[in-house]
Amino acid sequence: MLRRTMAASYGLALGLALISLPDPARALDASDIAGGARRAPVGTREITATLASDELEGRNNLTEGSRKARAYLIGQLREIGPGVSGGTDDDAYEHPFALGTNLVAVIRGRELPDEYVMIGAHYDHLGVASNGDVYNGATDNAAGVAVAVSVARAIRSLPEAPRRSVAIALWDAEEDGLLGSIAYVGDPAIPIERTVAYVNLDIQGANLSPGLAGTSIAVGAETGGDALSDVVADAVRAELSASPRGVETLPISFIFGQLRSDYATFVAAGVPTVFFSDSTGSCYHTVRDETRFVDFDKLASQSRIAYRTTIALAEGADTPDFVAPNPALATYGDAITLDTIFTRARPDLKRFATPQRLALERVFDAVHAIVERGADAFRPDDVGTLLDAALQTLDVLDDGLACSSSFARRGGPVFVPGERTHDAGRPVESPHLPSRGTR
């Protein structure tokens, strides 16, 4: 009798204990992820406008404007998650180095919290010109920061945390040669071997010409092999299917980013990486890179694509393996991407003076001829043609077009001077980059 009573009591206690246990966190479903995509653009306009305001004095590293930007961004990050240490004081988010301060926050994963997908953007810019004009850096890179923060906030708002942790990193001193991301990789807050992928955002919401308002590029996804390339392609397809104003984001090889953004640091460290960018147009590194020139329709679409890329990496069953950049540099696929871009930009050639128009036509025709010959006829000397085509086109666009809000898909044209009064071009290859290789 006593044994029976004890058994009954044990069974009752076990039943009550099981009832009181919380349900295990469920996987995110397609409806959850779609809801997050709809929320991804929320706040991008406000964050861009705040960071690109005159009050933040161009956000040059080691300046009062940078300190103000950092204080504002820490407030944003605190709403997303704690710092890497788990704290929420300002210093929990700050990772100082000799020439600036990086910022990092974390959304802890529900199943694999020690695996991290990182999304990042540099928040610094060029400061104030000698005549007092502010380099506001709206597209470079207030808008990129806005996308990173808004994507992280959308992920934080999901009904369950993603399978893996998501880290948002905001880099300082990128304009001085990627110094912030280099300092981080040299002394990482999150071990590099636990960083399964990196999503980089630099120059967003910008248009090289009016015909490219619906076009952007994704650089270097091949560093994560087919797995990462497929994740990016799926994110773009989902956006184009869901939004009539979606931005077609075309893949292009690692070298076409010219190692001129923080993506290069992570590839050099052996991390699968994709770099979303609109490249450098006529407003780039001028005092006219202002909020009024940001294409916020485009930025909203880019936010959704970056979100879908990041959440797919964080929620997926597998992670991409690192693949070193192609030693041949460029592929036939790059020819297709450049030809697509050039075809869409052709109607804008009438905006150029005759010598510039003719130069661009020759470049466009040379790339189109490579595509017409087909993949089997792709030759080593075609690589040089493609690389030269990309560089020549950017040079002519820089010199031949005024910085203009007519390039955005809203409002009427407003033309302003686009001359460069500050020579702050970043090196094509920084001597500080660590050796490329596997982890």
Structure explained in plain terms:
- It is a single chain.
- Helix content is 41%, strand content 12%.
- The N terminus and C terminus are likely disordered.
- The termini are far apart.
- α8 packs across α10.
- It has two domains: 286 residues, Aminopeptidase; 76 residues.
- The protein has 439 residues and is of the alpha/beta class.
- It has an eight-stranded mixed β-sheet, sandwiched between helices.
Concise overview:
The chain is of the alpha/beta class. The chain is built from 13 helices and eight strands.
CATH class of the largest domain: Alpha Beta
- Strand/helix succession: HHHHHEEEHEHEEHEHEHHHH
**Structural domains: how many:** 2
Q: Which spans of ≥5 residues are poorly predicted at pLDDT below 50?
A: 1-8, 16-22, 409-439
Query: What average pLDDT do the residues reach?
Result: 88
Please estimate the helix content.
40-55%
> What CATH architecture of the largest domain would you give?
3-Layer(aba) Sandwich
Ends apart, CA distance between termini: 64 Å
The tally of strands reads: 8
| CATH homology superfamily of the largest domain | Zn peptidases
Q: Could you tell me the CATH topology label of the largest domain.
A: Aminopeptidase
Strand content: 5-15%
Query: What is the rounded Rg?
Result: 23 Å
Keywords:
439 residues; alpha/beta; Aminopeptidase; 2 domains; 8-stranded mixed beta sheet; 13 helices; 41% helix; globular; disordered N terminus; disordered C terminus
